[in-house]
Specification:
single chain, 248 residues, alpha/beta, Rossmann fold, 4-stranded parallel beta sheet, 9 helices, globular, binds zinc ion
Length: 248
């Protein structure tokens, strides 16, 4: 676990006993605040909701029918439609990073509770993106699985954890788009000859280039799935498209 301020360590050790002595903190900025987010972080969270005018395919906040992320890909994504709830920036990024790298899975759920699935989900099952098994073991949970279960129970759909990462190649942070596509190809397989419905919703925490969800959708389609929708908690958006006043 990453180093954390001593007061947070105390809080973890003596949760409850010390709650009366140490004032609770906003989970975004860590100022004293009794709820999930202080008013200023709450306000920022509202600004970070993705607008309704987005690329019809990948959910990039642009009014044109096809955004540069989709046109750059050169051929269609294997999924039909991807939508995210928040920009991956500001307080949203802080909360997701704390959840993933500092061991606070409850933050992902709290954030997910603030999302609205305000587009018609026509899928018949929910499939999470596989995680790196080692990282999941370290963390004790898998973000995509936790979010997938939440979405499945909200939509009353079956939860099918049918994909697995084929090999645990060293996870290098790939920034280049071509490198990410290359890296994702062949990454997943379907665990068992599962019976999959014709239409599924893929779930992950963050969409960046779309390469990972594209590859997962491609593999599912080889196993009889015809339509793949994607939902992620957040979408990494180029800085020039962020709302004013938001830090990347
Ligand atoms: Zn705050
Ligand atoms: Zn797009």
């Amino acid at each position: 676990m990453a180093a954390m301020p001593i007061r947070k360590v105390f809080r973890e050790l003596f949760r409850g006993a010390l709650d009366a002595l140490i004032p609770p903190l906003c989970r975004g900025c860590e100022q004293e605040w009794a709820d999930f987010l202080c008013p200023s972080c709450e306000q920022e969270l509202e600004k970070l909701r993705l607008p309704l005018q987005v690329c019809t395919t990948c959910g990039m906040p642009m009014e044109s029918r096809q955004c540069f992320r989709c046109s750059r890909f050169g051929k269609p994504f294997a999924f039909q439609k991807a939508r995210a709830s928040f920009y991956y920036a500001g307080v949203v990024k802080t909360l997701i990073r704390k959840a993933k790298y500092e061991g606070y899975p409850d933050l992902l759920l709290s954030l997910a509770e603030h999302t609205l699935l305000d587009w018609p989900v026509t899928s018949q099952a929910v499939v999470p993106i596989p995680g790196n098994p080692e990282r999941s073991r370290e963390r004790g949970y898998r973000p995509s699985r936790m979010l997938g279960e939440l979405i499945a129970s909200t939509l009353e759909l079956p939860f099918l954890d049918v994909l697995r990462a084929r090999k645990s190649a060293p996870q290098v942070e790939q920034r280049s788009y071509a490198a990410r596509i290359q890296n994702a190809t062949g990454k997943f397989q379907v665990k068992a000859p599962a019976s999959l419905p014709p239409s599924v919703l893929l779930v992950d925490d963050v969409i960046t280039t779309g390469a990972t969800v594209h590859e997962a959708a491609r593999v599912l389609k080889r196993h009889g799935v015809r339509e793949v929708q994607v939902w992620t908690l957040a979408s990494e958006i180029p800085e020039f498209l962020l709302p004013p006043g938001i830090t990347p």
